[in-house]
UniProtKB/TrEMBL annotation:
EC number(s) reported in the record: 2.7.7.27
Pfam families attached to this UniProt entry: Hexapep_GlmU, NTP_transferase
Keywords, sorted A to Z: Glycogen biosynthesis, Nucleotidyltransferase, Transferase
UniProt protein name: Glucose-1-phosphate adenylyltransferase subunit GlgD
NCBIfam families linked: glgD
Originating organism: Halobacillus halophilus (strain ATCC 35676 / DSM 2266 / JCM 20832 / KCTC 3685 / LMG 17431 / NBRC 102448 / NCIMB 2269) (Sporosarcina halophila)
Amino acid sequence: MDQIAGIINLDHEQDLLDELTYFRCGAAVPFAGRYRMIDFTISNMTNSRIESVAVFARRKYRSLMDHLEQGKAWDLDRKRGGLFILPPDWNDPTDISRGDLQHFHNNIDFLRRTLADYILVSGSQHICNINFQDVLKEHKDVNADVTVIYKKVDELYPEHQMAHKLDVDEEGRVTSINNDHGNKNVYMDMYLIKKDYLYELVEECIAHGCSHFFLDGIKAKIPDLHVHAYEYEGVHALVNSVESYYRASTKLLDVEKRDELFRDEAPVLTKVKNEAPAKYAASSNVNNTLVANGCIIEGHVEDSILFRGVKVGEGAVIKNSIIMQRCEIESNAVLENVILDKDCSISESRTLIGAPEKPFVLPKRKTM
């Protein structure tokens, strides 16, 4: 059976989540109560029997390394294959590569040592639950050079404006990759390519002074390549702004969407933290809320997401908000349409109210 190795390429992902990416890259942003954004990409890979995963990281990756550790949570702490975090630590004076081609060029040993025949390259901003073995099967069936993955969205949101779109013919072949704001075929920053062909394209791009492998090595060569489009039809969210993060998070309060993303046969895995179950006081009132373990709730919470270890004082009211790890909301405080990053404290009787289309965001370790 053909094998796949995974590369999570964070090089061109911009940290556009404002306060949430002051101290971390977007891939390390907490999501859905107990996960990080990158957990969905790695879980998709390991659930697809990908046993070697490399992470190309260039900036603000300390939090990411702390979360991923040796890959134990995803069964990637192994002797053969495993998880490789590859920050920009190279000192080859003859290297002329630029952009993410530096990662491909300077970490070519990862590709050479893997036994995989194919390479699956993905970003971290597209939240989904996909089986890459299905992508491989379709890739081989149509004898494609490259298979790119896309989602045909029902409705276009502001976050889709920055995403690339695909024009696809009746045979599933990509005829154009563009930024047409009216095109609903959203490219998910995922593509599958044969390892030997990846070598060839990387060397060609470097020789021509290119800096972006996908744009210069694949998009620019669409007339000469057989680029196949694989349509992903499951639940999907693109997170590349605070507004899209808030929208994607609150959609998880819908049981059907949540069950479609968190499937028993393809679980989303994350770093394990052993904490006591959430505690609800007699004075608490909690409705339509995701509550992680370790929380202590004495107040009123509705239509919100509470991460691990959040404390909500008696008389406090939280609505339509996202409260991250170890935040403390003291008694009689009021929060509505608010995102609190980790370790924030809201003083007694304090009121913070944002708008549904523009939530109020408080950075890590702030007190108000």
